[in-house]
Design goal:
14 strands; mainly beta; four-stranded mixed β-sheet; 53% strand; Immunoglobulin-like; 15% helix; 2 domains; 3 helices; globular
Length: 171
């Protein structure tokens, strides 16, 4: 696995800049675990900074763990040759509140509270599955419900493929 990660890092460094510009944003905090699920089996993983996140692939899933504050690029190459790039931002433990306060898309909820986001063109909703929040599409809007204390992230993809990321904090 370590050799695969090192080889994938070299592959990532050689990848064209165009591929990195289309990366899906992924925000998490130190110690937070995000599981990415794919329709096809994962082949190789590539990271630009091994100190920011730890990644582990198994079947069609990739587990990403925030190790320290910073930013890295993650490329997930699928066995069929396709790939998905992520721009991973890990909020440091000391700066998490300051980073969240600066984000205009931050959704802050209490357990059981709901927030409606206008999203008439939403084609896909991608929610970090960690039990913190639940989302549902409802008449031109996205309804976010706080389920348990913690942080999560929601990516809303419109019909043209544009992505908007919403960090979620439930108290």
């Amino acid at each position: 696995m370590t050799r695969q990660v090192i080889a994938a890092v070299l592959w990532l460094c050689a990848a064209p800049a165009v591929a990195r510009e289309e990366a899906v944003p992924l925000a998490l905090a130190e110690g937070q675990v995000v599981t990415l699920q794919f329709a096809r089996p994962v082949g190789h993983l590539g990271l630009s900074d091994l100190a920011v996140v730890q990644v582990k692939a198994g079947g069609s899933r990739v587990e990403v763990v925030g190790l320290r504050g910073g930013r890295t690029s993650l490329v997930v190459q699928l066995e069929d040759g396709g790939s998905v790039s992520y721009d991973v931002q890990v909020a440091g433990a000391r700066r998490a509140a300051a980073v969240a306060a600066l984000d205009p898309n931050l959704i802050e909820l209490r357990v059981g509270e709901q927030r409606r986001l206008p999203a008439s063109g939403a084609a896909q909703l991608l929610l970090e599955e960690n039990g913190v929040a639940r989302v549902a599409a409802e008449r031109g809007a996205v309804v976010v419900t706080g389920v348990a204390p913690g942080t999560s992230s929601l990516i809303v993809v419109d019909g043209k493929g544009n992505r908007t990321t919403y960090p979620i904090r439930v108290r």
